Amino acid sequence: METSIMRLPSFGHKNPKVPLEAYRPPSYLVPALKERKTRMSKPKTRSGCKTCKIRRVKCDEGKPECARCLKFGVTCDGYNEPKKAKTEKLAIAPRRELAINEQSLPALQLQPDLTFHLRGNAEDTQYFRFFRDEIAYDLSGGFFDEPIWNQMILQSCHEAPCIQKIALSIAGLARALKANDFKEERDPHVEYALQAYEKSLQHFRVFVASNGSHDPRMLLMAGLLIYCFECLQGNMENAIQQIKSMMSVFKSMRQMKQLNYDHLRRKGSFEDELVSEIARLDGQLLGRVYDPDIGNTTIIGIKHGHVWDPFTIPEVFTDIRTARRFLEHIQHLSRPDVVHDEKAQPLPVPTQGPDTSRGEEHIRIMRACLANWWSSFKPIYDFTCTPEGDDNFVPAATLRIIALATSLILQTNMTMDSRQATENWADEALLSMERGSDLFGSTAREILDLSRKVVGHRRFVKGFVFATGIMSPLWIVLITAYKRELVVDIVELFKEMVPRREGYWNSVPLLETAKEVLAKRDAEGW
């Protein structure tokens, strides 16, 4: 057990460099090429405008725009400086070192020395470095063993201009958010981001309209990044509509009516990793505070398959990635639409106790599953609480907070009313501190204390994070709290994490809501 835990990733720096397997070339992104027609050989142009060089045609070198570009109605990108440095090669993999368990790596990998020939100027290079070294880690929320952010998106930037430009636009908005939280009227980072975003849409239209076959998985990749960009701008409904549209087109290209997904049956392929991130987003959107689609089982269009298949929680988890997937599966089985589904099959888990309704029995089983999950995950969590494992404390503690919040909901039998909370041995087994007079209050207190440690940790991200983190659990505590000191602590936690965003969840409006709840309860009496 000790050996497997010591192989956990150790993030010595913010965005580490991952040792990767052989990779050449990224064929999953390369569309089938049409047979090229032979063309007359023409002399190379070395002193023309950038556009004519790319098109490999002769340029008359007119200024500010050459006559050939004007004739064909294309944008003339101007001329290079007389003395231009050689094209810079950027390492596509994160630069900083990382010790990682090689057995846990997914199938799709990069070479550590794979270089990235950036199609752009020095400003683009600067923003790409920022995306590679900072934002990729931020988007992962600390779960950097998930390859979608630290490998696959960077691979896509290497091959697809539309993905590259969307990534650069996200980098621009993220820099503005970190620098001044969008408070400047004409922020240069925001202006760069909007320009890069407009270019990305142009590239994407060309990609979609291109002749021949193209990889439909690119639609999912673009959808994820466009969602991130729109979220950073505060355009939540537009972000949701964009990802829904991308999913609809993807299913049409795949000729499928429904996209089936299961947290526990992923094979680690490029498409599997993309769908996993979108499924996590779907679950996040289903928990929106003001949900216009309430009652739906999916927002984006994903159907969870194999829900009622038997599953066995490992005796001991050897990595955070696997533990996260099992917790997500338990969370899905704990959703109200699953718990109270009349067509649902009984879970293949033996239970003991008095005769109960199907819903009550299901909830009791889920509480036991959470206790088993925590027993298997505890060795990893304990290791991250040591100096040797401290680099992984934030993702490990985040999973524990989510598990405790799920337990809090189950304790109320899905009513979200703390007055209807019941006690169970499984819920008490989740606690690491000595319980107080009531189990519900002890669980809420442990969520807040652990959240305070996460927010104060050196690796806690106060920018934009794609995945759900600790905001949703804090919201659950807020709406179920029956003691003033709990709400006061939540207000202070939201203050400390501003301007953090976790996809849909934004710390700024949550802080204002928490203040309003506190003021209202003070006026009405506790």
UniProtKB/TrEMBL annotation:
<dbReference type="GO" id="GO:0000981">
    <property type="term" value="F:DNA-binding transcription factor activity, RNA polymerase II-specific"/>
</dbReference>
<dbReference type="InterPro" id="IPR036864">
    <property type="entry name" value="Zn2-C6_fun-type_DNA-bd_sf"/>
</dbReference>
<keyword id="KW-0805">Transcription regulation</keyword>
<keyword id="KW-0862">Zinc</keyword>
<dbReference type="GO" id="GO:0003677">
    <property type="term" value="F:DNA binding"/>
</dbReference>
<keyword id="KW-0479">Metal-binding</keyword>
<dbReference type="InterPro" id="IPR052360">
    <property type="entry name" value="Transcr_Regulatory_Proteins"/>
</dbReference>
<protein>
    <recommendedName>
        <fullName>Zn(2)-C6 fungal-type domain-containing protein</fullName>
    </recommendedName>
</protein>
<dbReference type="InterPro" id="IPR001138">
    <property type="entry name" value="Zn2Cys6_DnaBD"/>
</dbReference>
<dbReference type="Pfam" id="PF00172">
    <property type="entry name" value="Zn_clus"/>
</dbReference>
<keyword id="KW-0539">Nucleus</keyword>
<keyword id="KW-0238">DNA-binding</keyword>
<dbReference type="GO" id="GO:0008270">
    <property type="term" value="F:zinc ion binding"/>
</dbReference>
<keyword id="KW-0804">Transcription</keyword>
<feature type="domain" description="Zn(2)-C6 fungal-type">
    <location>
        <begin position="48"/>
        <end position="76"/>
    </location>
</feature>
